[in-house]
């Protein structure tokens, strides 16, 4: 599918349509099917909109396009750089993945920062608890790193805990990762993942169906979960409570015909209960990346090479060789010494190493990518001590 080039004027009407409150992808798709283009939708007027059976409230909203917001969107798009491209990907664009186009409530368009061509690559979604355990974070990083090394793009939601660990694992393995956001891409949520989001924009891809300026409202995140699962061949759940957004993503995946994988855990760990429930419902019990590749093999052309020496693929296995390297600069060494065996806040770490908070944050991100430090909610960090 090769669409006609989108002119600036056509783009303006698309952005105006996407900014109509309460429109949603289903009603938007119905209006496009009826009138053909966003410009024709706005030109139809009250009589045309009423003939489609939509509410008076929505008719009023269509009659008052947010042109100021459109101008903001255009400025955001035009501020792209060669290092971090950005733009709007329409549903009839050849780069828009067919797998996502076919799901219920497929987004009319996607805003993006980074390398949109990654949407065409085979993807594995990795999701799980925000308040993950150190072992859960280690598992997420190790599975993401090995799956990325074997040719899969790692897709997740940029949340704290398992999501962030999965993105970091893929980046640490020099692999590809996609973050699906529940807010406009002019901001990072949660703010603590700012450095990670910038790294993804440079080396991977950030996407959102929400226009720049849209805040991270709670109702946005269940909506973005259908995109995470819709992009992916399968969804791996690593730690999840019985009622969690991760289980929503897994169940959406099952409804969309995707494979669902879950890592089991201790019966005493409340974050294992969601995974156990998924396994009882038919999810594949997963112990290593080969379990995933074997299930996805019919859909993949992924190298079936064995793991490189030292790369972790099995639960509780040792860290990869890259993750056990000694810190490369003095600040990283001092941070590891300051962490010791306890949980330490970012504020206290800044005091202990006597360095600017920006430098401490950058060094902590490097240590997280190397699998030597785990970040927890509330800007609290701990050193990850691995078994030999």
Q: Could you please describe the fold and organization of this structure?
A:
It is a single chain. α1 crosses α6 and α11 packs across α12. By secondary structure, the chain is α/β, with parallel strands linked by helices. A nine-stranded mixed sheet has the order 1-2-6-5-4-3-7-8-9, with helices on both faces. Helices cover 43% and strands 13% of the residues.
Tell me roughly what share of residues is in helical segments.
Answer: 40-55%
Question: Main β-sheet, in a few words?
Answer: 9 strands, mixed
- What is the CA-atom radius of gyration, in angstroms? 22 Å
- Report how far the terminal alpha carbons are from each other: 52 Å
CATH architecture of the largest domain: 3-Layer(aba) Sandwich
Low-confidence segments, given as residue ranges, are 302-327
Class from secondary-structure proportions: alpha/beta
Describe the protein's topology.
Elements: H1 8-18, H2 24-35, H3 38-43, H4 45-50, H5 56-62, H6 67-78, E1 86-90, H7 98-101, E2 109-114, E3 123-128, H8 134-149, E4 153-156, H9 162-172, E5 177-180, H10 194-203, E6 205-208, H11 220-231, E7 234-238, H12 245-255, E8 259-262, H13 273-280, E9 284-285, H14 289-296, H15 330-339, E10 344-345, H16 346-353, H17 357-369, E11 373-376, E12 380-383
Helix pairs in contact: 1-6, 8-9, 9-10, 11-12
What descriptors fit this protein?
single chain; 388 residues; alpha/beta; Rossmann fold; Arc Repressor Mutant, subunit A; 3 domains; nine-stranded mixed β-sheet; three-stranded antiparallel β-sheet; 17 helices; globular
């Amino acid at each position: 599918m090769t669409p006609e080039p989108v002119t600036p004027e056509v783009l303006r009407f698309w952005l105006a349509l996407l900014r109509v409150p309460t429109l949603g992808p289903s009603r938007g798709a119905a209006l496009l099917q009826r009138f053909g283009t966003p410009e024709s939708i706005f030109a139809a007027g009250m009589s045309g909109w009423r003939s489609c059976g939509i509410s008076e409230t929505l008719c009023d909203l269509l009659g008052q396009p947010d042109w100021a917001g459109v101008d903001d969107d255009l400025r955001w798009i035009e501020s792209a750089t060669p290092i971090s491209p950005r733009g709007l990907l329409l549903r009839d664009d050849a780069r828009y993945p067919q797998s996502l186009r076919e799901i219920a409530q497929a987004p009319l368009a996607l805003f993006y920062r980074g390398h949109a061509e990654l949407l065409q690559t085979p993807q594995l979604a990795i999701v799980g608890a925000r308040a993950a355990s150190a072992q859960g974070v280690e598992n997420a990083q190790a599975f993401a790193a090995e799956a990325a090394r074997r040719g899969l793009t790692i897709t997740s939601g940029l949340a704290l805990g398992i999501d962030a660990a999965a993105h970091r694992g893929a980046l640490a393995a020099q692999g590809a990762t996609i973050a699906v956001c529940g807010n406009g891409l002019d901001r990072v949520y949660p703010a603590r993942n700012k450095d990670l989001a910038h790294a993804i924009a440079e080396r991977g891809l950030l996407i959102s169906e929400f226009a720049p300026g849209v805040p991270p409202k709670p109702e946005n995140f269940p909506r973005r979960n259908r995109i995470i699962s819709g992009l992916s061949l399968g969804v791996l759940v690593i730690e999840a409570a019985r009622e969690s957004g991760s289980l929503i993503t897994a169940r959406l995946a099952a409804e969309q015909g995707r494979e669902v994988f879950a890592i089991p855990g201790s019966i005493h760990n409340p974050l294992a209960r969601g995974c156990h429930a998924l396994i009882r419902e038919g999810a594949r019990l997963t112990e290593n990346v080969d379990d995933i590749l074997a299930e996805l093999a019919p859909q993949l052309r992924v190298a079936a090479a064995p793991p490189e020496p030292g790369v972790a693929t099995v639960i509780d296995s040792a860290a990869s060789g890259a993750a056990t390297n000694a810190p490369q600069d003095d600040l990283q060494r001092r941070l590891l010494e300051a962490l010791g065996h306890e949980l330490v806040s970012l504020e206290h770490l800044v005091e202990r190493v006597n360095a600017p908070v920006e430098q401490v944050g950058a060094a902590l991100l490097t240590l997280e990518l190397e699998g030597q430090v785990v970040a927890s909610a509330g800007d609290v960090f701990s050193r990850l001590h691995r078994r030999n």
